[in-house]
Amino acid sequence: LSAIAGTLDTYRRSTELNRLGLWLFLASESFMFLALLAARYYLWGMTRPELDQTLGLTVTTVLLISSWSMNRAEMMLSHDDRKGFLRWSMVTMVLGVIFLIGVVGFEWRGHIHPTDGAFGAVVFGLTTVHALHVVSGIVLIALMWNLVRKGHFSSERHFGIEATAVYWHFVDVVWVFFYPALYLMGTPVHTP
Amino acid sequence: MAGQRDLAGVLRWGIVVAIILFVLTLLEWYVAGHFTAIMLLVLLAILKAALIIKEYMHIGLLLGDEGEAH
Lengths: 192, 70
Fold this sequence. Notes:
The complex is a heterodimer of chains A (about 190) and B (about 70). With about 190 residues, chain A is mainly α. Chain A has helices spanning about 1-45, 55-75, 80-105, 115-150, 160-185, and strands at about 45-50, 185-190. The N and C termini of chain A lie far apart (about 70 Å). The longest helix of chain B is centred in the first third of the chain and has 28 residues, at about 5-35. Chains A and B meet through helix 1, helix 2 and helix 5 of A and helix 1, helix 2 and helix 3 of B.
């Protein structure tokens, strides 16, 4: 019993270090996203292109719901409910794909193109970098889904799941700032 | 720590947070459509981000104020 307790204690200590590393990584990512936001405010000022408002609100809602489903999946695994994790992480992946379809499949096919000067550069720059993070988030969740299906992780040992969930929520936090910057702030300017 | 609390309570709180986030998003959308209030939009975004970071990302675990590690 003391050996098990010792192993758990070692795992807990290494988890604390891993957690610090994860948040430092996210902090470094934040600087890149801040630079993109700075480019938006520098180039657009108090204007913005006319983007599809309904689509913007829809994809934002989808991503928020995906954060909720990821939280639900993580909490279920932390209570040894593996089936619950598999179900809700699958829901999260599907919502992530729907978000990508909304941005890449619909917004990118709208009237703004990458060659449309500052408007095109910012819309495509911000959404492309963010979409790549959504894709990597989906890949991470898929990897965790497969590991849990094979019996990995438990209520005591699941930092991989925690890290994946935190990363997914971080991608959501980035969109929380991108959504008003792209769709809501400033006076809409008609682009041909 | 969230993981050690009663599961039903934790899941219920997750739903409450999601609803608050959705309401704040609707508020953002409404404000942008009816007023020119950039600072209010910034404030709402910060509020939403803070809620996600605290309740979903469990930043308390990093700061050591949410009890045991995951």
